[in-house]
Fold these 4 entries.
Entry 1:
Amino acid sequence: MACRNGHYDVAEYLIEHCHADIEQRGSVVFDGETIEGAPPLWCAAAAGHYPLASLLLSHGARVNSTTRTNSTPLRAACYDGHFEIVKLLIDHRADFEIANRHGHTCLMIACYKGHKQIAHYLVSLGADVNRRSVKGNTALHDCAESGSWDILKLLLQHNAKMDVDSYGMTPLLAASVTGHAHIVEYLIMRENLVSQKEKVDALELLGATYVDKKRDMVGALNYWKQAMNERYNGKTELPKPFQKTTVEAYDHVKEIRDPQQLDDLLSDPDEMRMQALVIRERILGPAHPDTSYYVRYRGAFYADAGQFGRCVSLWSYALDMQQRMLEPLNPMTQSSFFSFTELFSYMMGEEGRIPSRGRRVPPVSFNDLITVFDKAVKEVEMVGADVNAKDEEGNTALHTSATYHSCSPDLPRTLLKHGAHLDYVNDHGRTFEDILAERGQPLHTIVNPVSSTKLSCLASRVIRKHKIEYIGKIPKALESFVKNHGHDL
């Protein structure tokens, strides 16, 4: 803590008189983030305390000691631009090629944070300008994403390559996604650096960024016109790929293919917003996080405007994309489910109220609810959740669905589709059908019991009904299955 907070006298006393462990690690907070396993030298370097860093080094502190995430004191100094400490550490033989657990090097972080002096110094020492992180990005990507134009030019002068990362993104596309027009324009103007297609994609993607991120329709239109001109008036004609299908969530828009249609766009901002989503998905693909992010962003825009149907349609499309491309229960997918929960909760809470802002909130569509419910069941199933799991009274989700005043067929049908058992009994010996009957609702109005019942279930019910001994007589794995089909009185 003395090194973190710059208390030189305290640190000196602890080292020289109390023989404190100069490598003792601990947890410290920087910019609201807790850093685990940080050694004293890392703390001093990150906080910019030059005298303390010098003191620690003079007493033998290891210059390349790391945090739990493999961040070195040198990387910490590069992060916040402490140039004098960077030089001090390198003078003590700090290794500037040690990357953190993400494969991110000292040069990369200096580029991302825009510390030109540090980047120039590291390059002059021979830092690898083409080193790749775990996700495949390079220092050029970091410059493009942060808008560090001067450093980007420096790297190109030292033979930095325009590589692609794990998402297939070049530094040029990275600049387009983040909206750094000056980087895009510089890269596409350099001779023999990028292809005609790369120029077109970058300009079209930059236009989409101007629509959604910068909210600059005129700027977006100008970049799309530049892209159109490059397509048809460049060295060779490069027509847009033929769009075989349209997306309902995007209002079935088709990408504009000629300059006249572009001019008409300004009179229809909604069409322009959909064009941006279509263009982004085509160029980045569904796997890139920005694709689904901006679909969700546009959905939220419509919700704020009271167009809840458009919001649900876009969010559902984004959720499909995430479930198709991401691992189960990815944080982005969880965020989408949470957004649906908030939206439906708000709509149900506002239903029937007198409009406060000149618009009435429509009732939640049960079809929308069941669609999202189906996706949620699918998601938790993929991580091992049991659709037949029971509560403290032995009720499954199917039992619970029957307790509603009027059980809609869609809910139990969704559960059955995912493997729910129609004839499981709870601790009171009641099945889904029994609970329905108590409410005066016949089973056949919900599902066809014949097509929804397996032969193994029928056999289990016979065993339980006639009290046939089965414990130890059948495979252990089947005993609980049979047990769930009857009740011990």
Entry 2:
Amino acid sequence: MGCSILFLPTYSPDLNPIEHYWFKIKNEIRKVTAQFKDISIAVEHVMKFI
């Protein structure tokens, strides 16, 4: 068929520093979402602290 398999390296989020920041951002958004009616306002609120 002309297809080949491409094996990707194992994904390790612990070794990728940006993953730690995304984890913190997502947690903060979850916390403040209950305080705001609109998710975009919650995200805007969290982004002010980055």
Entry 3:
Amino acid sequence: MTPNFLAKNQPKIKKILKILLLIFLIYIFFLSIVMMGEGFKGFKGLSEGLLQNVSNPIMGLVVGILATSILQSSSTTTSIVVGLVASGILGPHSIRIAIPIIMGANIGTTITNTIVSLAHISRSDEFQNAFRAATVHDFFNIIAVVILLPLEICFHIIEKSSVALANFVVSANLKGAEFKSPVATITKPVVHLLFNPKYPDETAGFFQKLFSPQLAKFAILAIALVCLFIALKYMVKLMRLLVVDKVERFFSQTIFRNGFLALLFGLILTAIVQSSSITTSLIVPLAGAGILTIYQVLPYTVGANIGTTVTTLLAALATGSIPALVVALSHFCFNVFGMVIIMPVKPVRHIPIRASIILSKIVIKNKLYPVLFILIVFFAIPIFILLITK
């Protein structure tokens, strides 16, 4: 390359380098979310212990919130519940106990994107947008539970629908399929290099060689949080440098042109990635950068709610266990019913939007408030309810 060529094409070269850097940062973002999941799995025993001691629907709901907040994965919580139902540990009415746990898991899984929004905390306007985008998911799932849990306790609408669907699936002789998440595939080599989940059956990861098993989990969690905050900080900066108005126009005129397309995109992307935590966290920096509005984010997150049930459905179909299938379908039915009840009615649909806007105006007044929100909603309130219902 001649100096003249480089000088002439310098703006294009710089733009290409910025795009490549953005792709690298997105990879680091994905990697940090996966590593967070591996780190939090160190508390899996605690979550299983909580889930085994559920005796009523309210207790099931708060245990579902707590277990998923600890594990950072509704799929993991649901998978544990499927195993408990199949084994009979939850007793003769296991499905009725499992459904509120799954409702709680839907609330607990939103903790990840709320944590992700904290990366924007040093920039008020950006943080307000990011926090709104994260908490609109929290409020939507909370409202869905407030509406559907009493109906489920009184009429068992989710249980009956799930049993009917399970009977149809069994009579149709549908079989499970194996599908691997592309995010898991591209991050697996690096994750295993740092922390191998299959150790001691396979070679130990870097942190497992340095520390005890428990300390290694804390180390990978700490590294994940650092990577997450760094990746998000520079992702937003780069997105702004790469002509935000063009990116905004692309999203507004294509994927997020209307609510249905946004919902469909959220559903398909989450079904492919197999993690609503990743797909809902991914749009937080886009909202922070001003590329997406809260009105575009809401239908996308509703689609992600439905998309995340695909993993459990495939796993349940593969097991051949009817109780496992009913539990997986109850997760699907809950999210579909939530969408059907809330999304078509404008005043109801605007409740999570208004709630997240009001909350975002409160939390920017003090940097401690968003942290308190996470601790109170996902831990303090569930623990308090758990103690008084025991």
Entry 4:
Amino acid sequence: MNRAVSPLIFIFGLIFGLFSASQNDYSAYFGFDPFDNFNPGFLFFFRHNINVAFLLWSGAVTFGITTLVNLLFNAFVIGSAIGTTATQIGLTKTLLIILPHGVFEIPALIIAGAAGFKIPYELLRFALGKKKEMITEEDAKGFFKFVGISIVLIFIAAVIESTITMKIAKNI
């Protein structure tokens, strides 16, 4: 059950963002500008996504509230950006810009969300009498395993986004 919560929340936010972009003009916020020479590097993308991951991980101490809010918000933003950009340059070109790094970044966010929900889930199980200890060593290991995996995926996504994705975007 715990592992399904994060992907379901992300998918809901993504769909809501796509729908919202079909009903609203977000081009002032997300848009494809072929004359934009802004070229962020690896650290820009890595730092941004690590900051998002910290907010997702922080659900471990906020009983999942910050994880829920930030997972929904970030999925909504991604969905809105996809919808807006697809309207401007087409779905195929949009996917060419998003997929190279997105195949690592999106799972990283979902896994970071799962980490943020891990501890509250275990505390709830304890409160309901489903387990004897509040937080076990295995629970902590599971949390840090999710954190580690999400960091590695964010690193890979930042490398790809700062190199391959930027080259693709310049050639579209």
